[in-house]
Amino acid sequence: MPHVITQPCCSDASCVYACPVNCIHPTPDEPGFATAEMLYIDPSTCVDCGACITACPVGAISPGHRIPDTQERFTQVNADYYGADPDPEGPRFPVDSLWRKPLAPVDKPRALDGVPDPLQIAIVGSGPSAMYAADELLKHRQVRVTMFERLSEPFGLARFGVAPDHPATRSVVDLFNVIAQDPYLQILLNTEVGRDVTLEQLRQEYHAVLWAGGAPTDRPLEITGVDLPGVQSATTVVGWYNGHPDFVDAVPLLDTERAVVIGNGNVALDVARILTADPDRLATTNIDAAALAHLRGSSIREIVVVGRRGAEHGAFTLPELIGLADGPAHVWVDPADLVDAPETEKTTLLREISQRPKPAEPYLRLAFGLTPERILGEERATGVRFQRTGTQETVELQAGAVFTAIGYRGRPVPGLPFDDARGTIANVAGRITADQQPIPGLYVTGWVKRGPNGFIGTNKTDSAEAVRGLLADAEAGLLARAGV
Ligand SMILES: Cc1cc2nc3c(=O)[nH]c(=O)nc-3n(C[C@H](O)[C@H](O)[C@H](O)COP(=O)(O)OP(=O)(O)OC[C@H]3O[C@@H](n4cnc5c(N)ncnc54)[C@H](O)[C@@H]3O)c2cc1C
Ligand code: SF4
Ligand code: SF4
Fold first, then answer.
1. Residue nearest atom 1 of ligand 3, based on CA coordinates
2. Which residues touch 379 (CB under 8 Å, ≥6 apart)?
């Protein structure tokens, strides 16, 4: 049986380059790559060589005959992408003609012409975009990289964002640890640019500065009552259960039978899943110990994850929904919420969930078509008033805890031009710009370059683009250290 890509896929495309028959798509140079929820193996051309398994940093690929029950649906999901039969009986792609198949393009490392030797690069941040950029830069003999990270641990949201019950995705830090071993990469922890060292100092001492500081701010929910005790952002809860030093005090109020999560993207699902998970199962993960102790005392019986639009527009990805439906989580959907929903891959699965018996408490419930109007309560949150989207009907949900998860946004960085509309540092393909003109020596990558979207692996393509611009400028003689 052909190989299958499953839920932990973070779209870094390593498998694309490893595959000898080019049967994994979309590739980074295909139009659908930036918005793909994962990558897919074409079952009719996969020759079962297994090369992609070794290449995948998060263990997302299984041989078809060893796929676990909880991931069985992915056989169909991969095949559907190609409109193919998931288990074809017909002849496979003939191995003796493999060499004729065009391979996905790979940027081959090349010698740099006419650049300073060594070429000193400062990278701000050590999250996925920073690590992929360093990896790309260090393919070149002349390059030396110094990375500045404000926290005492590296790897950004790969360490402090990804949910602790997703260990396969977390294992991408093993790859980053390998990159970090490069003798020409130095990572300075506990060093915040703007506090411990200034951007101007970096510009003096390095040929180029690559900003990879992420997009750490929540998009605010602007309704009455959001400042009440009991209301907090998903970012703070995620930081709290992952032991992020900025959020040790962001202890959620769990002395309530119902909580509401406003927003239904993957982060909203993470929060609801962790807060309803069996603490004994969480104890086998690396969830923060104090958070686990607090969760053991939780009174929550139901967490309602609320989306503004209909079920067919759920912001969560299909792979995440499959993980929720077939994994250990207790999840439920009220059939009444799906009456008018058109048939899509997501609503088909949601209907299946809605036909199941109501799960044991605590469980999470997905609700749709509700626009938040105000948080109810005087001293603390007691509920949320919604309007049924597109109608005048009001719906109130009693809840002593409310978590907002409506997305992220980059923060302006003093000294760097900011594109307020996009919430990113102003840039063209990773070159930071002022009035549309690139500023040689200043580059940006990751969430604060393209906006807070995509997966961990999406940053690889993004960083490759920024590094291409940086190295082209170096070869054009545009990079000089002001202080040397
Ligand atoms: C809650 C959550 C869960 C997620 N789960 C998944 C998942 O399961 N799978 C998946 O594929 N993707 C997931 N993502 C998306 C993924 O984490 C991002 O795509 C990725 O982390 C973005 O990388 P980045 O390098 O741009 O930013 P970040 O990961 O945020 O890294 C930025 C780094 O810069 C540091 N920094 C910032 N400012 C400074 C400064 N001035 N000086 C020094 N250091 C600084 C920060 O401390 C941080 O370490 C998740 C995102 C979130 C928010
Ligand atoms: S098993 Fe081999 S042929 Fe199949 S997708 Fe993986 S690398 Fe490609
Ligand atoms: S995580 Fe990367 S290597 Fe693994 S399946 Fe997804 S795209 Fe391929």
1. 9
2. 228, 229
The Å distance, Cα 95 to ligand 3 centre, comes to 23
Is 62 close to ligand 3, i.e. is its CB under 6 Å away? no
Token pair 């088909």 is found at 348
**Cα(200) to centroid(ligand 1), Å:** 24
Ligand nearest to the CA of 454: 1
Residues sharing a CB contact under 8 Å with residue 174, sequence separation 6 or more, in sequence order: 57
CA of 127 to the centre of ligand 1 (A): 5
With beta carbons less than 8 A apart as the criterion, state whether 363 and 325 touch.
no
Ligand nearest to the CA of 43: 2
- Spatial neighbors of 61 by CB under 8 A, at least 6 apart, are 3, 4, 5, 6, 15, 41, 52, 53
List 186's β-bridge partners, or say none: 146
> Domains plus CATH for the chain?
3-100 (3.30.70.20), 119-216+410-475 (3.40.50.720), 223-407 (3.50.50.60)
pLDDT over 50 (residue 102): no
CA distance 110 to 131: 20
Residue range 337-365, pLDDT digits in tens: 999 899 999 999 999 999 999 999 999 99
Q: Quick: pLDDT tens for 242-257.
A: 999 999 999 999 999 9
Question: From CA 191, how far away is CA 199, in angstroms rounded?
Answer: 12
Buried b or exposed e, range 202-233, using 16+ CB within 10 angstroms:
bbebbbbbbbbbbbbbbbebebebbebebbbb
Question: Whose alpha carbon is nearest atom 6 of ligand 3?
Answer: 9
Buried b (16+ CB within 10 A) or exposed e, 293-311: ebbeebebebbbbbbbebb
